[in-house]
Amino acid sequence: MKVLYIAAECKPFSKTGGVGDVAGELPVALKQQGVDIEIVTPWYGSITLPGADIPFNGRAERAGIVTTDVKGVPVNFIRNSAYFETDYSRGLVRPPFENPDLFKKDYSRPYVDSGKIPFYDDALRFSFFSEACLELIRRKKPDVVHINDWVLGYLFGYMALEKMPQKRVLTIHNIGYQGNIGRESIKGWNIERIAKHKSVGKLFADPRPKWKSVNALRLAMELADQVNTVSPTYKREMTEAENPARYFEGGKGLEKVSQRLDDAGKLHGILNGFEYKSDPTDAAFEKLIAEKSKTKKSLSRGFAKPKGLLLGFVGRAVEQKFKLLKESLDGKCVLEHILEIPNVNIALVATGMKEYEDFLHGFVGRSNFSATLEFAPGKAQEISLGADVFLMPSLFEPCGITQMESLSCATPPLVRWTGGLVDTVKPHTDPKGTGFGFDGRTAREVLENLVQAVKAAERMYREQPEKFLDMQKRGFKQRFLWSTAAKEYVAKLYRSR
User: DSSP class of residue 491?
Assistant: First the structure.
């Protein structure tokens, strides 16, 4: 079985989020299961490569192709200076952009947004990339073409139009990103032929008619032979409607498509794996706890009560991660309520949206709060290791990797019961508990239960240190392996009919 695994990012070459981790780790595990697999990803650097001329939007674009490997898995880079290297694509010269110089963006990284039309830049870049992938498919002749997220959805449209025989597999890492773009914005593009096709074009239309847009993720879902997402619980959530009244994201308008796929046995939830740095032995745990104690002392030096419970957070300052902390509860934001709990300290590293960075900056100077609002990988590692509890009050979490990392550091996570967090963290009330959690049937319940979960963590840490240590040990020894995930990919996605 020969598989082409196609992703917009792949570590160690490019990475902005979970897709890069998965693309750099899963194919290695699949190869170990006997799958003949190759990775395809854009080249975001500048080297001279052999390649092919790709007809695109009325002209020929040069696509260079080079191969290297990740732990023995071949990696095919597709290079084009206009779409993956320059300040802005030549495509922006066309209408609707009267002065493209106003929208210059760095195209040498995976995802960009000029701010003019949502998804415009990446729709342009990755529709070209999808055309270039067609050439690789013709040359490589794989049995399976496996794509990741909406940016590669156009490829399945092209394959359907050309009646290519390969099995089509889609992995959805976040159903909230769908590549919606107005039909008027793609006039003259190659993907317009997908939209105009009598049957395939209907699958390209956004399911919300009033939007008058195309939807690349829906196209990929409809044309895929098998679809998976990155945890069993997130798969279920994708089939349910959004409910803002209790901070529930759901299928974001694609829940009916998801439900139809699930009913047909074509939608699967396969939990991501994690690359562990140590073996789950008692000796390794004891060594880690000693390192953890030293690191916590270093992190807590500026706090008024350095021996209190240390909550840690590492991640992006975005709505998904911080909305619940910013919400008002009885006249104060939730973060304020948490900081008022006796013997609770917070240390975090976060960078992202100005709204949330400004929100966090407002707490700097408190005797129990420390924030690093810039990219600081060294500090982030310190917090993951030195914190007593890792805070993850996410609106949604398709799988999540930071809770797996915190568990491996003997740092119990405190999570919202959503998505992959449900599948990886057991509640502290369970005899096999590995962390703390919260949710609710209403918005108020969600916020109140978040504060109560922090109180429960502080209480166990202070009153039941041996029980807390046992929980740390269980989390440290827990394993979410890529080899397990790879077996499911082969059985459920590649070999299934």
Answer: I
**Distance of alpha carbon 238 from alpha carbon 225, whole angstroms:** 18
What is the spatial distance between Cα 467 and Cα 221, in angstroms, rounded to a whole number? Answer: 45
Instruction: Say how many residues make up the chain.
Output: 497
CA distance 104 to 324: 34
**Cβ(77)–Cβ(133) under 8 Å?**
no
Q: Distance between alpha carbon 205 and the CA centroid of its chain, in Å?
A: 25
> How many whole angstroms separate alpha carbon 260 and alpha carbon 99?
44
For 212-264, the pLDDT digits (tens) are 999 999 999 999 999 999 999 999 999 999 999 999 999 999 999 999 999 99
Q: Residue 354, CB half-sphere, CA atoms under 13 Å: how many?
A: 0
Question: By three-state DSSP, how is residue 65 classified?
Answer: strand
Q: Which CATH class is domain 282-477?
A: alpha beta
**Cα separation, 163 vs 25, whole angstroms:** 31
CATH superfamily of 2-273+484-494: Glycogen Phosphorylase B; (3.40.50.2000)
What are phi and psi for residue 220, nearest 5 degrees? -65, -40
- Could you say which DSSP state residue 101 is in? G
Beta strands in 43-116 (DSSP E): 51-56, 59-70, 73-79
Q: d(Cα 14, Cα 28) in Å, to the nearest integer?
A: 17
Phi-psi region of 246 (alpha: psi -120 to 50; beta: other; left: phi over 0): alpha
Element (H, E) at 27: helix 18-32
Query: Taking the mean position of all CA atoms in its chain, how far away is CA 278?
Result: 24
Is the pTM of the predicted complex or chain greater than 0.85? yes
Q: Rounded mean pLDDT of the chain? A: 92
Residues ≥6 apart with Cβ < 8 Å to 260 = none
Which of 463, 456, 458 lies closest to 437, judged by CA? 456
From CA 176, how far away is CA 159, in angstroms rounded?
24
CB-based contact 496:455 (threshold 8 Å):
no
Q: Where in the chain is the domain with CATH 3.40.50.2000?
A: 2-273+484-494, 282-477
Residue (of 82, 119, 121) closest to 103 by Cα position: 121
Residues 6+ apart with CB under 8 A from 405: 274, 384
Cα Rg of the chain (Å, integer): 23
Share of the chain above pLDDT 70, in %: 93
3-state secondary structure (DSSP) of residue 14: strand
Cβ atoms < 10 Å from Cβ of 142: 20
> Using 50, 70 and 90 to split pLDDT, how confident is the model at 92?
low
pLDDT greater at residue 97 or residue 13: 13
